[in-house]
Amino acid sequence: MKSNSRTKNLIIYAISVTAVLATAWLGTGCRKHAVGVTSLSSRETVIRSGEMLSFIPSAMTGTTPAVKSISAPRNAEELLIIARKSNPTTPQDETPGSGALMTEVEGQQVPMPLKHTDVRASVAGYIGSVEVVQQFHNPYSSKIEAIYVFPLPHNAAVNEFIMTIGERRIRGIIRERKEAEEIYQAAKSQGYVASLLTEERPNIFTQSVANIEPGKEIDVTIKYFHTLDYVDGWYEFVFPMVVGPRFNPPGTTNGIGAAARGSPGSTGQKTEVQYLKPNERSGHDIALKVEVDAGVPIEEFTCRTHNISHSSPSSHQLTVALKPHDNIPNRDFVLRYRVAGDKIKTDLLTHRDERGGYFTLMLYPPAELKNLTRQPLELVFVLDCSGSMNGLPLQQAKAAIERALHLMRPGDSFQLINFSLSASQLGHKPLEATPENIQRGLQYLRSLIAEGGTMMIEGIKAALDFPHDPERLRFVCFLTDGYIGNETEILGEVHKRLGASRIFSFGVGSSVNRYLLDHMAKAGRGTVAYLGSRDDGAKVMSAFFERISHPGMTDIAIDWGGLQVSEVFPRLTPDLFVGRPVILTGRFQGEATAPIRVTGKVARERFDFSVPVDQETTAAHKALPSVWARMKITDLSDESTYAPDPELPDQIKQVALDYGLMSAFTAFVAVDSSQQTDGTEGTTVPVAVPVPEGVKYSTTVPEK
Amino acid sequence: MSAPIQRSAEHRLGSFPNLLNNWPRRSSALLLALLLVFCGQLFAQSPTNTIRFQSVEIFADSQATALAAYQLEVTITSGNAKIVGVEGGAHPAFAEAPFYDPKAIQHERVILAAFSTQPADKLPTGKTRVATIHLQISGTDELKFETKLTTAASSDGKKIAVEISATEQRAK
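Predict the joint structure of the above. Result:
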C-alpha cells in the first residue's frame, strides 16, 4: 500500500511539475511574443507573405540594394526588413535643396511611424477652429506602438479626437487621465488598436497609438478652437510644429527632456522628445491650409515663416496654404493679416445653449492713448544666453536690445542681465540712459555668448530682486526661447517677486515656448512679442517701444449694461496698452439694456469709454462654450501654480469632463474593440523630430 | 510540547534523503502548494479579475423612410463597463463617428446624435447600423444595456418612427 501510494504520489508530482514547467514556458513564450520586434534576433530578415519586394537604390543606402536596415529605437536592436513597394522611401520623395537629399545620399533616412500631418484651419472673426490629422504608419516588420510628443497652441480648447482605421472612424472618449491611461494600457496589452492623447503642458501633448501592425496606417484627428491674438493692428494665426529642446534644472523629473534619437530614458524626465541629428530626416512632412473670413475687408497679410500660396475669394476672405516644397515641420507657422483700420472696434460675441449664455469681449485700447506720452522708464533687459540661444536667436535678441538702447530717452535708466547657468549683469544698479552709459551697455551686450543650461530662475531673481525707483516705471524685458521644462516654478517665482515691475516677454526663435512667454507677461501684467527666425529684431523692438511710449489703461472695471455676467476670465482684467487688446470670456444671463461701460486710469487720471451692444449683430458662435471652459481651466491652473489648493485639480477635471476638453487631468482615449491584433503588444517607437530651425543640435541635445 | 518543535527543526534542516523518507507527507504538502499555485493562476485568468473589450452595434430601422437624423441613448444597466469609443455606422451617410454628450458619458450613458444633409435617395432605409459603441468590461457580471430612441427625422425634417436595436459583438 505504501509503495503504491508513493508511486501514485510520484506520478502526480511528475505531472504537476511538467504542468508547472509547461505553464512557465508558455508564459515566457507569450511574453516574448508580446514584445514583437525584440524577440527577433538582430540581423534577422523578415519576409512576410504577400509582401512585394522592391529595391532601394544603392545611392540611397550606400550599401547593397534590396535590404534596408530599420532600427527599433527603444530596444536599440536592429532589424532588417524588406522595404514594401507600397511605401517606398526614395530620394524622389524628398525636397531638393531642403537638406534631405544630402542626408539621403549619406544614408541617413530615418524611418518613423509618423508619416504626415495635415492641418486645416478656418478663422471666423477672431476664433479659429483647427483640425489636425496625424497619419501614423508602421514601416517596420513587426507591431509597434507610436509615441509622438507634439505642440499645440497653449490656449487650444481640444474637444474632438477621432481615430481612423481604414474607413472606420472611432470617436475618442474624454476621461479622467488616470482612467484613460489604464484603459489604453489594458487595450494595448491585449492587442487592440488604441490611441491616447494626454496633455503634458498646456502647449505640449503626447499622442500614443498602440498595436499598429506592419504596413498598416492609423490616422488620429484632433480638433480644437482658439482665439487669435491681435498685435499692433494685425491678427495672428499661429500653428506650432515642433517642441523645442528643453533644459531641466538638476533634480527635476517632471520636465520635458531632450534626448538624441535612439536613447530613450536618457533624460530622466517624465516626458521626453527625441531629436533627429542634423544630417537625419524622418520623412514626416506637413500640409497646412487656413481659410479666414474676417467679416470685414482684409487689407493685407503676411507669412514670414513659410512659403505660401494664397487666394482671396472675396475682400474679407483669405485662403493660404503651405507650398508643397515647404513641408518640414521644424518651426511655427505664423500668418498675420490686417483688417481695415477704422473697422477695428471692441467686439462682443455671444452664444446661448441649454447651459446658458457665453460671451467673449475683445477689448481694444481707446485711440486716445496714442496722444499721451509716457513716464520715465527703468528698463531691465534679461537676456537668455543658454546654449539653445546660440547662433541666430542670440544675434536677433542682441539686435533688439541694441535698438532699445538707442530708443531710450533722457531720464530713463537701464540694466542688462544675462543668464545661463548663473546670472550676470552690467552694473550693480540701473544706469542712467546717457550716451556714455549706452555705449557701455552696447559693449557689454556684444561681449555676450550663448552656452550652458537655462537656469531662468537666476535671471528672474536678478531682474526682480532689487529696489524699485518710484520715479520710473520699471519694465522687465525677458528675451528668451523659453526652452525650459520647469515652467510652473518659473511662473510661481514671477508671481512671488513681481512687486511694482511689469514684465514684457520677447520670444526669440522659430518655435518658442509660447505658453511660458505668454504666462510670464500675463503674470507680470505686461505683454508678449515674438521675434521669429525670419523677423527683424530691431523692428520688433521698435514696435514694442511704440507700445510703451504711451501709458496703458490700468485698474479697469466694467459695467456690463444690465447683462448678468459671471465667471469672467481672466478674473483680473489686464491693463490695456496701445496696439494690444485683451480678450475677456464669461457667462451671462439676461439682456443688455445699456452699453457696456469700461472705466480705468490713464496716467493717474480717470478714463472711460463705452461699448455699444447690439445683440442682433453679436454673431453666435458654437465655439464659445469650449473657449470659455478652456479659459476657466487656464485660470484654475494658474491659481494652482500661485496658490496650490488640493481641490483645484478636481475642479479643473470636472470642467474638462463636462465640456469634453483636454486638460492636465483629463485625456482622450479610443479603442477599437472589434478586432484583436496578433500577439499582445508591440515595440514602442518614439517619433523623433528635428530641432527647430535656427537651434543648434550640438548645444541643446545631449548625446548618449 | 517539545516533539513538534523538534520535527519542525528537522524539517527546516532536512536534507534530500530526509525529504524522500517523509515523501507521502511532503508530497502532499507540495501537491497542495502546487494546487494552490494552479488555482491562483486559474483565478488570475478567470473572468472575475479580467478586463475584456467588446463592442455593441446599434441599429436603426426606419422601414421604408429614409433616415436623415437621429438621437438615441444607450445606458449600461448592468456589468462593469466603460465606454471607450463611439464609431460611425455602416451606411456612408452615417459613417462619421457620431457626437456624444460628455456629461452623460461620465455615468456610462451615451447620448448619440448624428445627421446627414444628403438627399433622401442617398440615405439609408430599413435596418441599418448607425453606430458601434466600444466597451471595456471588468469582471463577470453580464453586460446589460438599454437603448432608447430620443428622436429621428427624415430628410424633409419630419419626425419619423424608428426602431432601435443593439447586438453585442466579440472581437475577431
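Confidence is low (pLDDT under 50) at residues 1-23, 39-48 of chain B.
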